[in-house]
Amino acid sequence: xxxxxxxxxxxxxxxxxxxxxxxxxxxxxxxxxxxxxxxxxxxxxxxxxxxxxxxxxxxxxxxxxxxxxxxxxxxxxxxxxxxxxxxxxxxxxxxxxxxxxxxxxxxxxxxxxxxxxxxxxxxxxxxxxxxxxxxxxxxxxxxxxxxxxxxxxxxxxxxxxxxxxxxxxxxxxxxxxxxxxxxxxxxxxxxxxxxxxxxxxxxxxxxxxxxxxxxxxxxxxxxxxxxxxxxxxxxxxxxxxxxxxxxxxxxxxxxxxxxxxxxxxxxxxxxxxxxxxxxxxxxxxxxxxx
Length: 290
Known about the structure:
By secondary structure, this protein is of the alpha/beta class. It has helices at residues 19-27, 53-63, 77-90, 114-117, 131-142, 157-170, 187-195, 258-271, and strands at 5-12, 33-34, 48-49, 102-107, 149-151, 176-183, 216-217, 219-226.
């Protein structure tokens, strides 16, 4: 069986348009939250983390100048975010995006849901609410041989997409799989979380005993998995993957954690590691009471 190696990546948030920029600003303890976001949602006013639109448009224009890229398409803000992040993750790789051995997986929770707010239900753009329509646009822009696979499973969408990509690579179905996950903030999303009374009036503090809610942000992340060992000293492998379903509540997590423990144990077994081998855990720290 093949192994799945990380050969490229990108992160876009309010802190920057590359992983290096975002990490550097995090190390300087900078925050990307803003209160003056201009969204007309119900009080209380909450801090939100938003991607810079001017820089997004500039980088999208640069990505579109690559010879052979489709230039006649109309892109939503979400699709621009996907395009820029994918471009940043692959532009230094010797990767043939048009090859049948390369697959794109798109991961999102809400997609172009903002089109509902903008009264586009009676227009041609309404079809962009269907995630596969965004996938077709990105397929044409980059000339991927296959239609993108779409994974939309709420908060686990990104992790599940990376896990599925690793399975494709390990099984030899594709040599390279590009996973790109994005979600945007909108009045629909913010008002929905406010209706749960789940948002904090200040930047969130996960795992704190006085935590009082989550903070919402938007962004995009892309990771490239390959069966070929990347050059260089640092080699990252997706060694294990598993998922489970709480089957517990429409919005609340399992109170026992049994299902989560099952997935963690299964992934560690697959990777042939035990808890003593783990150096870092990236957890879903929502900062809500539960």
